[in-house]
Amino acid sequence: MLVDPELEWPLHQQLAAQLQAAIEDGEYHEGERLPSVRELAAMLRLHRNTIVHAYQMLEYAGYARSEPGRGYFAVMPIRGSLPQAHLHAQLQEELSRLHEHITQVTHEVVQTVQAQKVQGEAHDREVLQTIRETLHERRRRRRLWWLWR
Prior knowledge:
Helix content is 65%, strand content 5%. It has a two-stranded antiparallel sheet with strand order 1-2. It has 149 residues and is mainly alpha-helical. It has helices spanning 11-24, 37-44, 48-61, 83-118, 124-148; strands at 64-67, 71-74. Strand 1 (64-67) and strand 2 (71-74) form a beta hairpin.
């Protein structure tokens, strides 16, 4: 395995790609222990955190599993079962929820400010304080909502 620091591609990604290819090509079999973080760091003359990051990427992609105190082990994922598609769908759903939430909060704040201006009560400091209070209350309710989800 070789990593090239001259490439714009981060070292941990280069290493993860090479390890993934090695697993796919059968150099490491299902359940076989991958080189230890220290061994690989010494062999490639990289910081241990770089190796750990590469292994975490493999684990996330479904090509490795970690066992605390024992190391990382090769896993051959079943095609189509990689977590990326599922995670992408979850992220899209969460982004949609956040967008709705931001739109709702913005609408509430605008309504509150407009109501105060119509009543002639609004001064800049009061408007800002009202916005802060509204956002704080929404944030508090949002936090509690997550508990019941």
